[in-house]
Structures are given as structure tokens and as C-alpha cells.
Design a protein that fits this description.
Blueprint: H1 13-28, H2 51-65, H3 79-84, H4 94-97, H5 117-127, E1 132-137, E2 144-147, H6 148-165, E3 172-176, H7 181-192, E4 196-199, H8 209-223, E5 225-230, H9 235-244, E6 250-252, E7 274-279, E8 289-293, H10 294-308, E9 316-318, H11 325-338, E10 342-345, H12 347-352, H13 355-364, E11 368-371, H14 373-382, E12 398-401, H15 408-418, E13 428-430, E14 432-433, E15 440-443, E16 452-456, H16 457-463, E17 476-480, E18 484-485, E19 490-494, E20 507-512, H17 524-530, E21 531-532, E22 535-545, E23 548-554, E24 559-561, E25 564-566, H18 568-576, E26 586-593, E27 598-606, H19 612-630, E28 636-640, H20 655-664, H21 674-723, H22 727-744, E29 747-752, E30 764-768, H23 775-782, E31 788-792, H24 799-807, E32 811-813, H25 822-833, E33 837-840, H26 858-866, E34 870-876, H27 878-881, E35 892-898, H28 909-926
Helix pairs in contact: 1-2, 6-7, 8-9, 8-21, 9-21, 10-11, 14-15, 21-22, 22-23, 25-26, 26-28
Length: about 950
């Protein structure tokens, strides 16, 4: 059917576009809409074109129309929208394609002493502010250089906007932006404002809105995100998230950023502070935000740089999305640290035209680049031979392949196809990493090239023993070696019981290293599963051979059938190459068989085939292929429509979610319209809000009751303290008031080690951890002696609180780190000589995130110089009773655990440090929270 528009189309442009689309539909056996393909045919809803299908279509349209389409064409909803973007353009001259020149390589050094990302940027800013850091290739041919000074200025403007919006120190800010200069500015701007970035990916197409919002709502709620930075076009969609995320106060866009006055003074985080939260892709029901500190990131970047032997003349070329750890840390932050240029392309630019990636390596003499296996495969299928004539890849020395299973066949084909372009086969480098290690864990030795291990498939399936066999053996199974542990890292393979296994025996892969995460944000259950005896679980199965890691599959994806271990990846790859099956859209999983009590092997494969006879033949072909590989047939083959096989933001198969849809019988359901999806999200959000309010109602009622109690008792105690003439009377009133308030509020207090508290008259220094505003109150009740709390001077300026604390002989100081202040030390010495007890919280403050913060030295210097014992006290459970700064108390139990007094060996700094270490060891062992740095 000819679209009416084509009747007045003088040059036949519309008809040629439609002809290209019809040819692709015919070759791909796409479902044809009623009335045929017209300009208003929806590319995804009507034809089922995914990103790779659109990539193929764009290539054909460009050839048919002799036009250059922008990368936005990849998101065009209809053929008519595609036509509007297909205006013929002149190809820029070759001399102009190179764009902005990169700086000459120079021995500029690296910020070895930097403890944080902001410190690393500051170092480069001092050394070479006008040096090009990023060359960003947007929609236009002319690339945009971003110099270190410009990155700093952009970050300072974003920080100013966030501070103006009310961002507090330590609050989380989600970034939902595509690759752009604004993304780079936002990430460092959040850090500069004192916040914690949370990268999430933006929605790409309307058909994904519901799934996208549901996944992000859980992530943002888990992160407790206060702000979301996104595009103006996504503001409406983003606002829907606020219904399901109570913490989200504002959606921020970066329009007119240049009008913002840069923040004059940036935050100064410490090495152990959280740099950002990396949410692992996968299950939507249990968001796992990997906690990555500045120290973690810099340790991993330095280790990867040492393994890759990064040089001053290196150039990193990347199209990887910045919400993914390989693109954010491996490509960008690694380039930032080592001071090498980053050539940044958008993911859409690569998908629309994969040749752009290799052309960027050619034009900029790229030496380092990374991509998942599918990207190398896409280059093999989408780049024509005619494009290889002028392509020079001789500069490429590290072609990292990771983030998803690596195919031995892809490695061989890629090396062979691009060898005439100067690509050295030893440049191909399968690597392995995971967010829990920051990003990188294993690299191969430099210039070694891929190593393929051929093992006996049957023996491996039954015994887990990777017995080597000749690669031409019909029973051989190919496993790609993914490198050796980075410097400073260790790996091991253990059985399910935790016993370390010898080489070539498959089991659970674990690791240790300087960037091993301390856990998952606000997810203690997942953190407990992650850490075992000091090792971190990777969630992968593997075996070690010759020092290399050989991955065999995810632990959760293992299928056990008839006493054999079956691995989905090999089956999925083999089925995916069958004609009629959509490659990369096949999953294999186990489903319980209630009749036999065992597991059934289910294969779900996407196809556009609708003819019943051809579908029957295709199903039989799948059965035969699986039987050839395993020696046994699958229990069920499901031929599903396009987009039935779910994937993560990084393109990984969501096997668990597909399995859930299969079990729920919703695998064949057609995608709902965008409006229906938005409506469903709104209804679900309203229901979720109502349910959340109902769940929180008992807690709110209790909090109101507790504050009413406090409102009644506090004035009584305050008045008594103001008029009581003697200190002993004041303390009796305060201690009695706290005891009655605690009991009436249903808070139980356990005290251990009370007999270790020195007798009245004997001076000592008390040092306790700080979890909550309740800490001082419980210490007052637990320690039967007046405590001279050391508090910041700002509290003295609070009318009611300041007067109360003064009547209780509180010592107000300018700062908690008192080692530099002789005057304050003299005050402490006089108080201790008078027989008083000084109480310190050496952490200085507490934060929402559980964990023992670094100790300041004031308490320990005071005890050492006065020659009095230091009493370590661990507080446990108070954070839950009054969490953070939300002022919503809860009933429950807390403990005050008193340790053996620590006696100073002298009065110098070393003696004070010894007291600190002894106190910290006791508190860390008893406070019930992770140690975040000594």
C-alpha cells in the first residue's frame, strides 16, 4: 500500500524509505499491520523493532536516501518521524572530521596523593587547567572539548543549584541523564555540594515507561534520594516517581546552567566517605546499591592502570553509558585520574552507526577502549567491507571485552575481520569485574591476547572438573579466560560449604581487594549474604586454571537436571544463531516440576514468525540444537514475541524476571500503550502511598505519643535543673527524668560492664560511639556519675538547650579535634585533676548510614596528658530507636556496653594514639556496625 504522502513526494524520498522498511520487514519476517506498512506505522508497537533492528533499518535508510541520520533516529516512533530526520546532508570533509585536536602527550604525572575524586580533579586543575580532558561527540560532527577548568566550573554551577535547592550534606542525588557534558558536570557537582550521586538510566522509548519507573522507584526509595537531575523532556515522567518515593523532594533540570553563580567553596569529603552508589542491574524486588567510597574507586583505578600499563600518550575512546560502572569508572574516572583524553560518544551514536566507534579510534589514535561482547558482534554484522578500506586500528592496544559473557567465536571473528585494518589479535582482552569491586577485578597480561580453554563438556556437567581436551574434540566446551587478579587483589573458588577447591574444579568465585565494597546501602540482609569470612561473593561460578579466571555462569542461573549442572549461556548462544530466532533474545532457566519433584529445562526464544507451520519447524530446530549440545532435550520450548525476553539497562538477560513471567502466564502479553502504562504507574503509586501510610500509622502514633511525653516532662526537668542549687540535685533530676521517659516510651536499656566504671572521686575520660541523639541521654542514665560532656560551642547559643547544658557543667569547645588547642587541653587537665569525668563522642557526629566513623584525637590526648584512664563504651541499637535526623522515635531495646579501662603509657602523641586504637577495637567489636575506617 502506498502512503498518500508519497503521491506528492517529488523525489520519491518517502517511498524509498518505505521500501527499505518493507524489505527489512520481509527479510526479518516482521508481523505486518492491517493495511500494510505506511509512514504512520509504529516501528516498535506495530513491527516489533528493537534497538538492533532499528540500527539495521537506519543503515538501510541512509543508503537508500543517501542521507546521514542523526542518532535521535534510533528513537523515532514512526516511519514518518524517521522521514523528518532524513534530510540529505553533505558529508563533512575528511580534514574536518578529526575535529578538535588533542593535546600532545606529556609526562604530567598523576595525583598519587589524592584521597578523593575531588582532590584528583583539583590536582589536574592546578597542573593544567586548559588541557582537554574530554572530547564529547554529540549529534553534530564538531566535537565539544571539555577542559579541566570547564569541568570544574560546570560542577561548581551544578553544586550551587543543588545547594540553593536545599541539598544537605550526605543526601543522595539521582542522575537520570544521557551521555552529555551535563552528565559530567552533574556527577562532580553533586560531590562538590556534599551529596552522593546515584546514577540511573533514562527511559529510551515510551513502551518501556512502566517497567522503567517501577525499577527506578525501588532504587530511589532504597537510596533515599532527595533530588533527581534529569532532562526537561523527562520531567513529567520523573515527577511520577515522587508518588512512590517519599524522600524525593524535587526534580531538577539543568536549563540555563551558565546563569548560575558557581559555588565558591566545594565540599571536602574524606577518603572513606561514600563517592557514589552503584545499583547493580538485575532483580527489581531487592535493589542492591553497592557502596563505593573515594578510597575504593581510587584503589581500583590505580590497580587497573598498573595492570594496563597506562601511558601518558594513551587515548580512551568510549561510547559506554555513564550510568554503567564500566563507562563511568573504567572509561571516564580512569581517564580523569591518569590525565589522558577521553573521546566520549553517546550509546545511541554507536547503536545507530557502529562504525562511529571504530572511526573514533582511527581519527583520534585511540589506544584504550572497552565494550560488552554484543558490541564487537554488532561491528561484525553492521559494518560493511567497503568501510574497512580507510580504517586504521593499529593504535588500539587494549580492546577490553567484559560486562557480559565473552564469546570465543566473537573474539576469533573480530580479530580476523579487522586484521587488515591493523588490529593486532593480542589487543583483544577479555576482562572480568563487578560493581562490588568498583569495576575491575581481573585483566589478562599485556599483549597476550585471548586464551580459550577447551574442556570435556560431559565431565564438567557431572563432576565440575574442567578436564582439558583438544579443541577439535566433538565433546569440547569452550571457556574464555577472563584474566588474572589485579595487583593487590585475590580470588578463590570454594564449594557451597566454603571449602577452597583446587585448580580446574568449578565452584563459587570469591574475592578480596582494596576496593571490596563494605556492603549494600540500606540492605543488611544482602550485605550479610555478600561477605563470608572476609571474602566477597561474586555471585558467579568459575574455575581457576593457569592463574586465570574461567567463568561458567551466574550462581542463580545454574540449572540442575538429572544430576547434571547445565549452564544457560552456551544453550542461549547456540539457539540464538538459528534462522528465525532473534539473536541475544533467548533465555534458558529451570522451572519446578511438581509431578516429578525435579527441575524442568525451559527455553524461551523470541521470534517474529507467525506462520504455524514454520513455527512448528522452528520449535523442532530449537529442540534439536539443545539436544545436540546437552545430549538430552529441553522439557519445553516457548516461542515468544519480541520484547518478551527482558533485559537490564546494560543489556544483560533478566532470566529470573522472564522465569517469573513464564510462571505467571504473562509471557505472551502484548506491551501496553504508554498512556495505559503511565495510568497504571499512577494508580500503583497512589495505592503504594496509601499502603505505606497505613503501615506507617502505628509508628506515627507512637512517635506522637513519645513526643507528647517529652513535651510534658522536659519543662519539668528543665525548671528543676535551673533552680536546683547543687550539682548532685541537678543530675538526680536529669537522670530520673530520663529513666521515667524511657520506661514510659517502652524503651528497654541493657547495661553490661557497669562494674568496670571507676569509683566516685576517680577521674577518667569516657569515649563512646555516636549513633543517635539518644546517646547522651542513655549514657547519663547508665553511668552513675555526673558526666562533663564535651560539646560544640554552637549548642551554647541555643536558648533552652544551652542553659540546660551549662547548668550540667558541659564544656563547650570550638572543635572536636583538640590536639592543636593548648588552651582546651589545659581546661580538660584542670577538670580531670578536680576529679571530674569527661565524656567524648570521638566520631564528632553521626550519619544516616550505619557505621563507625574515624575517631578524632581530643579524648585520647586529654586522657594521655592527664594520666587518667580512658573508659571505652559501646552504644548499640540507639540508631534504630531514633534514626538520623527524622525525629521519629521507635520503641525497642538499646545497650550500653562498658569496656575495661585503658591506661595511658605516657603523655605524648603516640600514647594517645594507642588509647584511641584500644578504644576503637573494643567499640568496633561491640557496637554492631561496620567499621568505616580507623
Amino acid at each position: 500500500m502506498l502512503d498518500p504522502v508519497t503521491e506528492t513526494d517529488a523525489g520519491g524520498t518517502a517511498e524509498r524509505l518505505l521500501q527499505a522498511l518493507r524489505e527489512l520487514a520481509r527479510e526479518s519476517r516482521l508481523p505486518l499491520p492491517t493495511g500494510g506498512i505506511t509512514l504512520d506505522t509504529r516501528l516498535e508497537a506495530d513491527l516489533g523493532l528493537d534497538s538492533l533492528g532499528r540500527s539495521e533499518l537506519i543503515g538501510r535508510v541512509e543508503e537508500a536516501l543517501e542521507a546521514v541520520l542523526p542518532e535521535e533516529a534510533l528513537l523515532a516512533p514512526t516511519a514518518r518521524d524517521l522521514l523528518a530526520l532524513a534530510a540529505p546532508k553533505e558529508q563533512p570533509a575528511a580534514a574536518n572530521r578529526r575535529g578538535v585536536s588533542l593535546p600532545e602527550a606529556a609526562e604530567v604525572g598523576v595525583p598519587e596523593a589524592a584521597a578523593t575524586l575531588l582532590a584528583a580533579l583539583d590536582w589536574h586543575l592546578r597542573q593544567h587547567p586548559d588541557r582537554t580532558h574530554i572530547l564529547y561527540h554529540g549529534s553534530d560532527e564538531a566535537p565539544q572539548p571539555i577542559r579541566y577548568a570547564e569541568l570544574h566550573q560546570g560542577a561548581a554551577r551544578v553544586a550551587a543549584r543543588l545547594r540553593r535547592a536545599g541539598l544537605a550534606h550526605g543526601e543522595r542525588v539521582a542522575v537520570m541523564l544521557p551521555t552529555s557534558p551535563e552528565y559530567f558536570y552533574s556527577f562532580f557537582g553533586i560531590l562538590a555540594a556534599g551529596g552522593i550521586p546515584v546514577p540511573i538510566y533514562p527511559p529510551s522509548r515510551p513502551q518501556q515507561i512502566e517497567d522503567h519507573l517501577l525499577r527506578h522507584a525501588r532504587i530511589l526509595d532504597n537510596a533515599g534520594a532527595a533530588f533527581l537531575i534529569t532532562l526537561e523532556a523527562a520531567r513529567t515522567v520523573a515527577r511520577l516517581l515522587r508518588v512512590q518515593v517519599p524522600s524525593l523532594r524535587e526534580v531538577v533540570t539543568l536549563a540555563d546552567l551558565t546563569a548560575e553563580t558557581p559555588l565558591p567553596a566545594m565540599a571536602r569529603p574524606e577518603a572513606r566517605d561514600i563517592a557514589f552508589l552503584q545499583y547493580t542491574s538485575g532483580s527489581t524486588g531487592d535493589p542492591k546499591g553497592v557502596i563505593l567510597t573515594h578510597a575504593d574507586l581510587l584503589a581500583n583505578i590505580r590497580a587497573m592502570g598498573e595492570a594496563a600499563q597506562v601511558r601518558p600518550d594513551d587515548v580512551f575512546v568510549s561510547w559506554l553509558p555513564l550510568y554503567h560502572d564500566m563507562g563511568l569508572i573504567g572509561a571516564w574516572l580512569g581517564s580523569l585520574y591518569f590525565g589522558i583524553p577521553l573521546i566520549s560518544l553517546s550509546p545511541l551514536a554507536f547503536l545507530a552507526r557502529p562504525l562511529r566507534w571504530l572511526q573514533a579510534i582511527h581519527r583520534h589514535r585511540g589506544t584504550l577502549s572497552a565494550a560488552p561482547n554484543f558490541a564487537y558482534e554488532l561491528c561484525l554484522t553492521r559494518i560493511p567491507n567497503t568501510a574497512l578500506t580507510d580504517l586504521d586500528l593499529g593504535s588500539w592496544r587494549w580492546a577490553f571485552n567484559g560486562a557480559e559473557p565473552v564469546s570465543a567465536q566473537t573474539l576469533r571473528r573480530f580479530a580476523e575481520r579487522f586484521a587488515p585494518c591493523g588490529l593486532r589479535p593480542e589487543a583483544l582482552a577479555p576482562v572480568y569485574g563487578l560493581a562490588e569491586a568498583a569495576v575491575g577485578l581481573a585483566f589478562p597480561p599485556p599483549s597476550r591476547g585471548p586464551r580459550i580453554d577447551c574442556i570435556d563438556r560431559a565431565r564438567f556437567a557431572r563432576q565440575g572438573h574442567a578436564l582439558q581436551v583438544p579443541c577439535d574434540d566433538t565433546s569440547a566446551m569452550e571457556v574464555v579466560a577472563c584474566g588474572r587478579p589485579l595487583p593487590g587483589y585475590r580470588v578463590r573458588v570454594v564449594s557451597a560449604e566454603g571449602k577452597e577447591l583446587p585448580e580446574r574444579h568449578e565452584g563459587l568465585l570469591q574475592f578480596q581487594g582494596p576496593s571490596a565494597t563494605q556492603g549494600y546501602f540500606r540492605n543488611p540482609e544482602a550485605t550479610a549474604r555478600l561477605i563470608r569470612d572476609g571474602w566477597r561473593e561474586t555471585g558467579d561460578r568459575a574455575y581457576l586454571a593457569g592463574g586465570d579466571i574461567h567463568l561458567t555462569g551466574r550462581v542463580k542461573d545454574l540449572i540442575i537436571r538429572g544430576g547434571r549442572n547445565l549452564y544457560p549461556y552456551e544453550l542461549e548462544q547456540a539457539v540464538g544463531v538459528l534462522t528465525g530466532i532473534r539473536q541475544g533474545c533467548v533465555v534458558a532457566f529451570a522451572a519446578a516440576d511438581e509431578g516429578t519433584g525435579s527441575e524442568r529445562l525451559v527455553i524461551v526464544a523470541e521470534t517474529r514468525e507467525r506462520n504455524p507451520e514454520r513455527r512448528t519447524a522452528l520449535e523442532q530446530a530449537v529442540r534439536e540444537r539443545v539436544t545436540d549440545i546437552l545430549g538430552l532435550p529441553p522439557d519445553e520450548v516457548v516461542l515468544a514475541p519480541p520484547r518478551a525476553v527482558l533485559k537490564t539497562s546494560s543489556g544483560k538477560l533478566r532470566r529470573g524476571d522472564v522465569r517469573e513471567r513464564y510462571l505467571a502466564g504473562s509471557l505472551m502479553a502484548a506491551p501496553r500503550s504508554p498512556m495505559e502504562q503511565l495510568l497504571r504507574v499512577g494508580i500503583r503509586g497512589a495505592a503504594s502511598t496509601g499502603a505505606r501510610l497505613m503501615r506507617s500509622l502505628p509508628g506515627l502514633l507512637y512517635a506522637a505519643y513519645a513526643w507528647v511525653l517529652f513535651g510534658i516532662m522536659a519543662p519539668i526537668v528543665w525548671t528543676g535543673v535551673m533552680f536546683a542549687p547543687r550539682p548532685a540535685q541537678r543530675w538526680a533530676l536529669v537522670r530520673g527524668g530520663i529513666r521515667w521517659l524511657r520506661r514510659l516510651a517502652f524503651i528497654r536499656l541493657g547495661i553490661r560492664g557497669a562494674g568496670l566504671i571507676p569509683q566516685p572521686g576517680a577521674p577518667f575520660v569516657l569515649a563512646a560511639n555516636h549513633q543517635s541523639y539518644l546517646d547522651a541521654l542513655l549514657l547519663i542514665e547508665a553511668v552513675p556519675r555526673p558526666l562533663g560532656f564535651v560539646a560544640k560551642r554552637e549548642l551554647a547559643d541555643l536558648p533552652m538547650v544551652g542553659r540546660l547544658l551549662a547548668r550540667l557543667d558541659t564544656l563547650f569547645v570550638e572543635r572536636f579535634d583538640l590536639a592543636r588547642s593548648a588552651a582546651e587541653s589545659d581546661r580538660f587537665a584542670e577538670a580531670l585533676k578536680a576529679g571530674r569525668v569527661l565524656a567524648f563522642f570521638p566520631e564528632g557526629t553521626f550519619r544516616d548510614v550505619p557505621g563507625l566513623l574515624p575517631f578524632r584525637m581530643g579524648a585520647f590526648v586529654a586522657a594521655a596528658r592527664a594520666g587518667v584512664p580512658l573508659l571505652p563504651v559501646a552504644l548499640r541499637g540507639t540508631r534504630r530507636l531514633l534514626p538520623g535526623e527524622r525525629f521519629l522515635p521507635r520503641p525497642g531495646r538499646a545497650e550500653v556496653i562498658v569496656g575495661e579501662p585503658c591506661h595511658p603509657g605516657g603523655g605524648d602523641w603516640g600514647d594517645a594514639a594507642a588509647l584511641r586504637d584500644a578504644a576503637r577495637a573494643f567499640i568496633a567489636a561491640h557496637c554492631g556496625e561496620v567499621d568505616r575506617g580507623g
